[in-house]
Amino acid sequence: MNLLVVGISHRSAAVETLERLAIGPEAAARLSRALLRGGEVREAVVLSTCNRVEVYATAATFHGGLAAVVDELHQAWGLTEHEAALDFASFGYVRHGADAVAHAFRVAAGLDSMVAGEPQILGQLRDAYEGAREADQVGRHLHELFQQALRVGKRVHAETDVDAAAPSVVTAALDLAEAELGRAGLAGLAAARAAVVGAGAMGSLATATLARAGVKTLAVANRDRDKAERLAAEWGAEAADYHDLAGLAADVDLLVCATASTEPVLRAVHLEGRTEPLVVCDLALPKDVADDVADLPGVSVIGIAQMQRAETVGAATETLAAVEALLAEEIEAYNESLRADAVTPTVAALRSAAADIVDAELSRVARRGDFTDDQRAEVARTVHRVVQRLLHEPTVRVRELAGQPGAPDYARALRDLFALDTPSVAEGADLAEALKVSPEPVADLAAAYERAAVESLKACPLGADSSPAAPTQP
């Protein structure tokens, strides 16, 4: 079975591209169902956050699985055939086999997040897995992968200082906002009047962070008024009218927008007549804040793009080194178990072939009339014991040896030596061939894909992503 991760993230695509291709919860569910209906993909989990859209899948063949996933992503994104070929080669990425395992573990640990080590992605990964499991879209392979990835993510946060060293996306944004407030003459967050638009995961976290910072005043607005009131009551804030953003913005120094809207909720018209400085944090994807807001005098907008450029975001270098070491250990252990499991079908076929030979010989003996029933039974037990003892040590050893890094293909060796007829697992992945999902020139497409992948790795060797939720916030 081939394990694949196919998708886009802040590492491979610009914020504008991520915004255009964001997938909400309903679209993600439709994508999973469509993948499984197609037949090529056997299991599927779609992870959609503010900074990534990824499909984790298993398929009988690499090429067939990849083509199916890419085609369905194109459908979900509404791209034309021509756009799909060129765009995915430029901003998409594919991880296969051991690389897919490493990617899943790094995502769970927060090392592939915009803020290296941030903890929110672990919850998002768990939600994506649980949703797919409840929809019966997860089998043994993805179940084991996600169980292990979630365990590793928890271990990273329990055994390293990554929680203390790595701020969340909200914290990073508010750090930048505090600097802007200082330039506007306010002595930090404690002196600011603040408001949060949105009461989902991001909005809730922003409200909690601002309340703990001791802001001068704090208001919460949400399309669902009851939800805003509950969140405001929890943190000693006031619930505000979501439909009067102009009035809300008129009385604050800091405005945080984190809704799940597919369109901007804050526009320049909401700030007409305002003369005092205003800092706006846009934590949503697609953006909650229209482009014309940043053009207004005295208004500073901090969005995902600004956080990507911030040099101070992320966990301390020594902490990241400790996390990397832990991940290397866990990834190798898991891949060792996968390599050992890869020979299991062949070992089973070998034992089955031996059993067939034994049964055939015992049937021949049974036809002889010079054996009593007890004698035939004793012969059968003896022959079975001999075969089991002969096969036990080699089959145990072959699993141990197959699990070692760089081990030869013991499964193939057994198939060749004993002439076993077992389906071989699809091998290596020729990405240039695998990306033949449209009639576009494959050579150009593959070259663009490889260039994008290399540049992405050069730019971000450690990682930095996520914020909660789908299209915009979680």
TrEMBL record:
Keywords in alphabetical order: NADP, Oxidoreductase, Porphyrin biosynthesis
Protein name as annotated: Glutamyl-tRNA reductase
Pathway: Porphyrin-containing compound metabolism; protoporphyrin-IX biosynthesis; 5-aminolevulinate from L-glutamyl-tRNA(Glu): step 1/2
Keyword Membrane among record annotations: no
Sites where the protein binds NADP(+): 198-203
Domain Tetrapyrrole biosynthesis glutamyl-tRNA reductase dimerisation: 323-420
Recorded name of the encoding gene: hemA
Binding site for substrate: 49-52, 113, 118-120, 124
Entry's free-text remark on domains: Possesses an unusual extended V-shaped dimeric structure with each monomer consisting of three distinct domains arranged along a curved 'spinal' alpha-helix. The N-terminal catalytic domain specifically recognizes the glutamate moiety of the substrate. The second domain is the NADPH-binding domain, and the third C-terminal domain is responsible for dimerization.
GO annotation, biological process: protoporphyrinogen IX biosynthetic process from glutamate
Domain Quinate/shikimate 5-dehydrogenase/glutamyl-tRNA reductase, chain residue ranges per copy: 186-308
The enzyme's E.C. designation: 1.2.1.70
